[in-house]
Amino acid sequence: MADLEQDVQIPRFFICPISLEIMKDPVILSTGITYDRDCIEKWLFSQKNDVCPVTKQVVADIELTPNHTLRRLIQSWCTLNPSSGIERLSTPRLPISKIEIIKLLKDSKSPHLQLNCLKKLKAIVMENEKNKKLMESVGAADYLAWILTNMDNKMTSSPTAGDVSGVDEFISTGTDEVLSILHHLHLSPMSLKSLFGKTGEFVETLTRVMERATSYESRTYAVMLLKAMLEVAEPMQVTSLNPRFFMVLVQILVDEISQKATKATLKLLINVCPWGRNRMKAAEAGAVQVLIDILLDCTEKRVSEMVIVVLDQLCQCAEGRSELLKHGGGLAVVSKKIFRVSSVASERAVSILHSVAKFSGNRSVLREMLQLGVVGKLCLVLQVDCGRKTKESASEILKMHSRESESHRSSPNLNGALGHGEGALVLYKM
Q1: Which residues are CB-contacts of 141 (< 8 A; sequence separation ≥ 6)?
Q2: pLDDT at residue 7 in the model
């Protein structure tokens, strides 16, 4: 740039305010300032700024208008100055417009145009961040949700539902395309709330899609979309989730379709279990047994932490505690994870043991805790730096064991079971 300026004076209005170089594809922002397309798109979409670099005004309309007059002037000027080493700029390819996207979305509602339109929309959304924002701004999410719901209704009412041939195969392919587009749009909270709607009908649609889909990728996209939607939903909307919703989530965990799907499902459970009767619904769907099995084999710390957080929530209801105690490795693996995953996991593991001991802690349960070395772990919890609530929970459990030990000291069977655990209790009381 500096060498060129020594030979020829570049008109200042040819220069992009961001790059300070000659614009190859000048476009006008809604604020009236012209920039080079690549620069302003990077500013708005890759760097996620929402103001005009020059005026500092908030950019309400993200569509960029080509400045054809300026581009022709720059091209003519470049043509007149080849001796200065300036090459003529080629005419840029026209980007996708709102009008074209809207037409594709409307056409995609037509059965004979649907699949072709969806494939084009997918190519558009995968091209760049600007296209994603442009598609969202014209209401693509609502269009796609309508299409997916319509496909689901057709599959549900089809006499050959579940058969992957003919019409069903066509609908299945279309479903895959819609879910892929919705996933890659990276929708804003406002669009996600719009998808949820007032009745949560689209949640039911996604639940049926996850239940029926044969593509692991589509099931992953569906659960990730549900996670994003339920993160922005109102609490009252979350309490009305269908029990089948939890059964489908449990099946995704069982199938281990992908690491992304597992993490999204666990995060989804973390978000919805505190509300209403969702803990009970999840426990009755078999979540506790599956979560314990995952924890027994898991080596990934983040997954282990999330599993323990979900188990802690589920053990706050009687159904969850009952399921934990039914599993032969439930108490053992929870106790084992204390100090081995993270501080959060350790606190939640102690919370699980506290819930079980306090609300389901009969003699056999306390004896099992002693045999598993839980008492020793809890004594150690009191000695390390951890939260006040965690120490209080550990102390309360140890007091339960202490009372149980003293009241049954004359029982030879129980004395034989205490072993190292009783020694830990003696240390605790000292």
Answers
A1: 182, 185, 187, 191, 194, 195
A2: 62
